[in-house]
């Protein structure tokens, strides 16, 4: 048993704990908002105006997929780099700087979103504070400048974090000239290359167009252009949420299964494939957008299908590693080994259930990716089902399970109750099954996502079951998920204060069955993979972006901004442009 | 690179699966002809929509035998026209644009689904085989009233569908002794000629007149009744054509009233004392 992380790297443990604290605070708020939505849109319990639902929805998206997922990522990656390179960053002040930038950015974004709950939001910088624009902030919906400025600050913080890890690795490399990059660090560096390549789009959209536009420096934007730049980033970012889970599945899951990773070389190949393919596919989110030629959509479709490959490879390696572990623990038979797995360990069970949900959700993703089938499901509740199985479970449940394993090493305290932890992860699984199976089904009948009241003047043609039954499942699932989230946070809080205890966890990660020596060194050539990724992005995006700009211009065909906080009179002016509104 | 035999098999199977998926989508495009919304339409500035040939008047238009075009505006928080009416057994091409924010144009229960982006026009063609009634919803968040944005799509039985528009202009009052004149305008938006009968009822008189309106054109007829036959007082009139009906009332003034309100040539150019009703689309009652 090696020394505890907190004892060996106290300064880094503090940073990781700070990142996790921010992540889990956001998780708590986001989970509460999720519960409100589940009850509101199904009309089980409505205590907010439906207008305010969109403030809740924006907060749910931003706090969970931006704040929670990415703060967890930086915490986990700081841990992974530190343990696998066996050293801290060159300068911890830089590390705290990126943490600070990300936190300030989050705060600005959170303030601008939460102002939506006020009846009379304050005026800041000459405009009313608001950001009911959802996680995708499609122009001409316009948020307050603070929202865009906060996002930009947050992104700069992430860039700096990546640079910090690259610098740590660079110094390590100087001291270990002939060694292969340790797998966890390799995964961190590849994820960050993917992030650098893929975040260009959204940063350009925000810094060049949306922020100046919200400050009235430029008069209009091209909505199709900013939207396309968003989606250039928008599919890469889903892998940014999922890859920390992959890191845990490849490194921690085999270990808690009682064995070791099956194949280090294929783990590297998987991460390389994500670097290459995760960005030149973004147009598959725009299959139904006018102004983008069908050919470009077809190319995005084929690229997307090949993205299945790294996930299928992962399924094999992870299951093979689990089987190896089970057999070490005495498991026998073709399927009998499954019984030998440590199902009482919440870290194991959480990750295994998350992986199972991910496999199912992956196939629903094929439906989304299937260009012409996309007509059936685009913007329907099916898509919400997909994101909740993938990010909401594959990532989030793995993060929680991984936290059960990590938290004793980060605090030196024993997890307060493994049994409650087990109940928590199983509860999450049950909740997500109720909620997403009904979301998928409702989506197929055309029930839309992102709406406060999906009840209309017509009746949905529900093939099997009824709308009432689907709504009940969503409300029940959402409630179970919320209880599970609160249970998790409660366990975490008690563990943090459980100082009078011995942490019983072995933080060491055994080497893979087939190690890096079984693979060619070219896999570690980061420059090569970056260059190929950039070429693929250029091939996939140069022509579509050029076409969009030549059609509508950089700033669009005179599109007027549409600030989202609008008082009644202004709404009437939009709805009834021909009627002169006389204030009473 | 050393790869386990099972893993090699898995890799091959994965590639077969991926190529299979791409093949099915390709078959959907090439074999079944499911095309994607593309970039065929030119951009349109939101402020120009009101003056545009296509979107200035949102409508359904016949462009060929069993072929129609629908020009639709999605705007916070309505769809125009509403309802959209098309015949069964037809192919309808929708053109949808937005003057304000990004909207969705989706018909639950079908695969009609498009993003509506200001500056761009979504074009999609749909075949309607069977009559039916559907809801149209906006499925992209578009502001505080997003959930109220709803329209109606009615696919009418082929024999009940028309693009006939009936307008009747008439004076509200006439001097005794003058003629009561109803100007009936029938617009035929379909390509085939419309052969029909105009039925006019006023007091107890019934007048029938046959009329043929050529495809994609408009005909006017005048119906004249001597006010002396009607007598002094209020007289209700009804004009009906193919199930469309317009009604109104004309007053024959008592003798000696100042005849200022009379419009000598009866063309109703004084809008204050004419009554105009319009009915569009619809279908037989």
TrEMBL record, chain A:
The lineage of its organism: Archaea, Methanobacteriati, Methanobacteriota, Stenosarchaea group, Halobacteria. It comes from the Archaea. It comes from Natrialba taiwanensis DSM 12281. GO terms for molecular function: cytochrome-c oxidase activity; heme binding. Keywords: Membrane, Transmembrane, Transmembrane helix. Residues 20-523 form the Cytochrome oxidase subunit I profile domain. Gene3D superfamilies: Cytochrome c oxidase-like, subunit I domain (1.20.210.10). GO terms for biological process: aerobic respiration. PROSITE patterns: COX1. Pfam families: COX1. This is Cytochrome c oxidase subunit I. The chain crosses the membrane at residues 18-40, 52-77, 98-118, 146-166, 186-210, 230-253, 265-285, 305-326, 347-367, 387-407, 419-440, 474-497, 528-549. Signal peptide: none annotated. One of its GO terms (cellular component) is membrane.
From TrEMBL, chain B:
Residues 243-285 are annotated as: Disordered. GO terms for cellular component: membrane. Keywords: Copper, Membrane, Metal-binding, Transmembrane, Transmembrane helix. Residues 65-167 form the Cytochrome oxidase subunit II copper A binding domain. It is found in: Cell envelope. One of its GO terms (molecular function) is cytochrome-c oxidase activity. It holds the Pfam family COX2. Residues 260-271 have a biased composition (Acidic residues). The chain crosses the membrane at residues 9-30. The keyword Glycosyltransferase does not apply. This is Cytochrome c oxidase subunit II.
